[in-house]
Amino acid sequence: MTTIRSYVHIYEGLHRVYARALFFLLLGLCATSIFLYGYFLKSAAFSAAHFGDDQAFLAALSSEVSELEAQYLTRIETLGREDAGTIGLYETRTAVFVERGSDTKLTVRDGIHAAKSQ
Questions:
Q1: d(CA 33, CA 103)
Q2: Angle at the Cα of 23 (from 21 to 27), degrees rounded to 5?
Q3: Residue range 4-62, pLDDT digits in tens
Q4: Nearest to 110 by CA among 90, 94, 89
Q5: What is the pLDDT of residue 92?
Q6: Which of 14, 23, 56, 107 is most buried, by the most CB atoms less than 10 A from its CB?
Q7: What is the model's pTM?
Q8: Mind giving me the DSSP string for 30-77?
C-alpha cells in the first residue's frame, strides 16, 4: 500500500509541474497572439490611412506623364531635318529591309529581289 501512495504522491508532484509549465506556455501563446493581432491591426489601419495618399500620388503622376506625352507628340510633329540632325539622326543613302524567308531564316530583301531577277 505504501508503494501505491508513493506513486500517487510522485504523480501529483509531476502533475503540478506539468500543469504549471502548461499554464505558462498557454499564457505566452496568448500574449504572442495579442501582440500579433495588434501589430497586424495597426499595419492594416496604416495601409488604409495611406491608401488615399497613394491614390493622389498616382493620379498626379499619371497627369504628369500625360502632359509629357502631349509635349512629346507636339514636338515630334514639328521635327524637321535640321532638328533631327542636332539630336544625332541622319538620312541613309540606301534602304535595307529584312524579312523572313520561306526557310524561316532572316534574309535581306535586296538579295531576294536580285535572285528573282536573275
A1: 67
A2: 115
A3: 666 666 667 767 778 888 889 999 999 999 999 999 999 999 988 888 888 999 999 99
A4: 94
A5: 76
A6: 107
A7: 0.41
A8: HHHHHHHHHHHHHHHHHHHHHHHHHHHHHHHHHHHHHHHHHHHHHHHH
